[in-house]
Amino acid sequence: MKRVVITGIGVKSAIGNTKEVFWENICAGKHGIRLIDTFDTSDFDIKVAALDNDFNSEEYMDKKEARRTDRYCQLAVAAALDAMKDCGCELKEAYDPYRVGVIVGSGIGGLHTWEAEHNKYLEKGPKRVSVFFIPSMIANMASGMISIRTGLKGANFCPVTACASSNHALGEAFHKIRYGLLDACVAGGAEACITKFSAAGFNNMTALTKSDDPDRASIPFDKERSGFVMGEGAGILILEELEHAKARGAKIYAEIVGYGATGDAYHITSPDPGAGAAAKCLEFAVQDAGLQMTDIDYINAHGTSTPLNERVETSAIKQAFGDHASKLMVSSTKSMTGHMLGAAGAVEGIVTALALRDGIVPPTVGYQVPDEDCDLDCVPNQARKADIHYALSNSLGFGGHNATICFKKYED
């Protein structure tokens, strides 16, 4: 089996559109949650979101292409181009382009386009619906456009598993390189669905917080948590086979060593309160890495700030790790980025890789009121220096989709 390393990072989020600014804000415990100003919330219970207001698509594509491309896809392409630049080479020249894949997930896809074109259909009739509606809306277009822009011709697809989408993308890319099917892969996820229609749907299913205080809105593991905060953005990682990366002198952020995936077989939105499948997912990722459960130092939790999620995730961690659960650091960076849905796993994978590189465990910010049902070390409010060697990034998606990635501090 081949070793797989991370050599490039691109991120778009409410707390930064470069990896440097993003990581600086993570370490400082700075969140990007603010009052929604992109649509009128007068008729809505929800008032806050984690919007990426600083993103400018025209830095990455001309106006004509931007008009024909949904926001989620713009974010994905931008993050991918940044990651390609960061990795220090043109992958289609360094490798056989058929040996470099693009695996980019999205939970929902082009919802901005869907909403705008549906409104146009209702107001102006079917002939006014854009010819670009379908290609702009479909969730796989991000991976398609990244391939078109970069000339990479290897395995190209889009995992769609709700909030676990981009963790599945990382895991599938990792396995393809590990078992020799690819030499490198552009992997991650993107999401942009902070719209009226989407907000109404998530709100009516009581998934979102009704707090209008940005500092007390996304508060994972806090007893007063009341629902998640919608976030948007993209995270893209360049994964490469280690020997190829070393041969070209690539910088290496961290190593991916394990991947677990399970299904709850329980409910369309709620996680299984028994937490058995979520626990097995953690175990499978550690087993896939050839490690013992006691080797893990840190978990970047799914941690959505919903009453049920943290109870279930805490139970899963205790089932999987036993006595070692009390020794783990377990933080949720959704307290800063909001819940980025299909992009969450990849962005949290970036956090986990940088945490291993720098020996800094990110905090769970906004934490004030302890919850006896979530009695893990959630690294409250301040980042912590720690010599960590192995870490997990955990994702749970509507439909019962679970995915966990195991990362290792890179050592030659």
TrEMBL record:
Q: In which pathway does it act?
A: Lipid metabolism; fatty acid biosynthesis
Keywords carried by this UniProt record = Acyltransferase, Fatty acid biosynthesis, Fatty acid metabolism, Lipid biosynthesis, Lipid metabolism, Transferase
Q: Which reaction does it catalyse?
A: a fatty acyl-[ACP] + malonyl-[ACP] + H(+) = a 3-oxoacyl-[ACP] + holo-[ACP] + CO2; (9Z)-hexadecenoyl-[ACP] + malonyl-[ACP] + H(+) = 3-oxo-(11Z)-octadecenoyl-[ACP] + holo-[ACP] + CO2
Q: Which residues form the Ketosynthase family 3 (KS3) domain?
A: 1-409
This enzyme's EC code(s): 2.3.1.179
Q: Which Gene3D superfamilies match?
A: 3.40.47.10
Q: Which InterPro entries match?
A: 3-oxoacyl-ACP_synth-2, Beta-ketoacyl_synthase, Ketoacyl_synth_C, Ketoacyl_synth_N, PKS_Beta-ketoAc_synthase_dom, Thiolase-like
Molecular function terms from GO: 3-oxoacyl-[acyl-carrier-protein] synthase activity
The job of this chain, per UniProt, is described as:
Involved in the type II fatty acid elongation cycle. Catalyzes the elongation of a wide range of acyl-ACP by the addition of two carbons from malonyl-ACP to an acyl acceptor. Can efficiently catalyze the conversion of palmitoleoyl-ACP (cis-hexadec-9-enoyl-ACP) to cis-vaccenoyl-ACP (cis-octadec-11-enoyl-ACP), an essential step in the thermal regulation of fatty acid composition.
Q: Which family does it belong to?
A: Belongs to the thiolase-like superfamily. Beta-ketoacyl-ACP synthases family.
State the PANTHER family in the record: 3-OXOACYL-[ACYL-CARRIER-PROTEIN] SYNTHASE, MITOCHONDRIAL, POLYKETIDE SYNTHASE-RELATED
Record protein name field: 3-oxoacyl-[acyl-carrier-protein] synthase 2
Look up and give the organism this protein is from: Clostridium facile
